[in-house]
Design a protein that fits this description.
Blueprint: E1 19-22, E2 27-30, E3 33-34, H1 35-41, H2 44-53, H3 59-71, H4 77-89, H5 92-103, H6 115-140, H7 154-163, H8 169-182, H9 189-199, H10 204-215, H11 223-234, H12 240-249, H13 267-283, H14 287-303, H15 309-319, H16 327-348
Antiparallel strand pairs: 1-2, 2-3
The structure holds carboxymethyl coenzyme *A.
Length: about 375
């Protein structure tokens, strides 16, 4: 029983109506809808609605949430003043963590913690995350800020604010699908961190800040950036096999592979693999795709481990010419939908989350005066 419960494996930390996973069969659903149906059909705005209302929106409900999201894209004045300093000094995930924390100071709902205010704050946070990332990037690149375009979807608007050009419909739709795929994933580390924070009855901005902090690590959301760094290091597909075998010989993990819950293909990876292939063909640049294929094959041959959501997301974002250090912030731009819904779910039926421990320190012993210590 040495490692029983290590990493809380198998522990049910909370009940949720938001998403479900069958790790043996590779099934993921949001509020009962298969991720495959959602990836093929839903927009990210529909997913935000679904996670917060537990039903798909009608046409008028969708129009209304799209409008609310479009109206809330600008950061408040305090954060806008802070962004140039963060762009000059902070890495992207540190910027996001600090900017989201700072957003609480001037939120229009202040410290109102009513259910209605928390919903408004949640929508505001979903709307503003992409703007923070895009503004930050343009500020650090000494480029003019592109104000949000309320006529564009959240996905298309992000690409527009980041790059200054409007993406074609296929590209915008592909990015939208990436947001759909990353929006929620049961009791992952960042969602759990958000729920732990909310369960103390701390505020929603604090819970989002905790979630961003947890997502940042390379065992979680930071893996997508690590995958792109690996692809760049490998350089050509013919070098991939040796590179991976060497990593295993050194007992290193290959980022973008393995999962606590999935013991088969992560269903999100199926869609991201398809998109990476399509983009390789569309751009006429098979580089990332070929290296990724070779990595996947080698990891499967050597260890029988499947790629997770982060593996092909890296290639897709690479093909969309998104800077590598923005991959994890983009993950956050999607996952904030799930985090905020989980936090509202936690508040609705709260109990402090306070696990137990296994003590492994010395047995009780006598106090040693300073003069008698070794
Ligand atoms: N490369 C090589 N070996 C691996 C990998 C990997 N990526 N993942 C798991 N293993 C091996 C691991 O070495 C261990 O082997 P052994 O039993 O011989 O010691 C076994 O598989 C179980 O791994 P574990 O680390 O105990 O599993 P875990 O459930 O604690 O960790 C994980 C899950 C996702 C942290 C881990 O698979 C990992 O570190 N993967 C690489 C990082 C990564 O891609 N993270 C993204 C996770 S999915 C999306 C997200 O959350 O962002």
């Amino acid at each position: 029983m040495a490692n029983a419960g290590k990493g809380l494996e198998g522990v049910v930390a909370a009940e949720t109506a938001l998403s479900d996973i069958d790790g043996q069969q590779g099934i993921l659903s949001y509020v009962g809808y298969s991720i495959h149906d959602l990836a093929d059909n839903a927009t990210f705005e529909e997913i935000i609605y679904l996670l917060h209302h537990l039903e798909l929106p009608t046409e008028s409900q969708l129009a209304s949430i799209r409008e609310q999201l479009a109206q809330e894209r600008e950061p408040n004045g305090f954060v806008s003043e802070l962004l140039p300093t963060l762009a000059a000094n902070a890495a992207p995930m540190s910027m996001l963590r600090t900017a989201v924390s700072a957003s609480s100071a001037k939120d229009p709902d202040g410290w109102d913690v009513s259910e209605a205010a928390n919903y408004r704050k949640a929508i505001r946070l979903c709307a503003v995350f992409p703007t923070l990332v895009a503004y930050y990037h343009r500020l650090r690149s000494d480029e003019k800020l592109i104000p949000p375009d309320p006529n564009l979807s959240l996905a298309a608007n992000f690409l527009y604010m980041l790059k200054g050009d409007k993406a074609d419909d296929d590209t915008a739709r592909m990015f939208d699908t990436c947001l759909v795929l990353h929006a929620d994933h049961t009791m992952n580390a960042s969602t759990f961190a958000a729920r732990v924070c909310a369960a103390t009855l701390s505020d929603i901005h604090s819970a989002m800040t905790a979630a961003i902090a947890a997502l940042k690590g390379p065992l979680h959301g930071g893996a997508n950036e690590a995958v792109m760094k690996m692809i760049k290091e490998i350089k050509t597909a013919d070098k991939a096999r040796d590179y991976i075998i060497k990593k295993f010989a050194n007992k290193e993990k290959v980022m973008g592979f393995g999962h606590r819950v999935y013991k088969t293909e992560d269903p999100r990876a199926t869609h991201l693999r398809r998109m990476a292939k399509e983009l390789a063909e569309k751009t006429g640049d098979p580089h990332n795709w070929e290296i990724s294929q070779e990595i996947e094959k080698t990891v499967m041959d050597e260890k029988g481990i499947y790629p997770n959501v982060d593996f092909y997301a890296a290639s897709v974002y690479g093909y969309l010419q998104i800077p590598t250090d923005l991959f994890t912030p983009i993950f956050a731009c999607s996952r904030v939908a799930g985090w905020s819904a989980h936090v509202r779910e936690q508040y609705a039926d709260n109990r402090l989350i306070r696990p137990d421990h296994g003590y492994v320190g010395p047995a009780p012993r006598d106090w040693t005066p300073l003069s008698d210590r070794g």
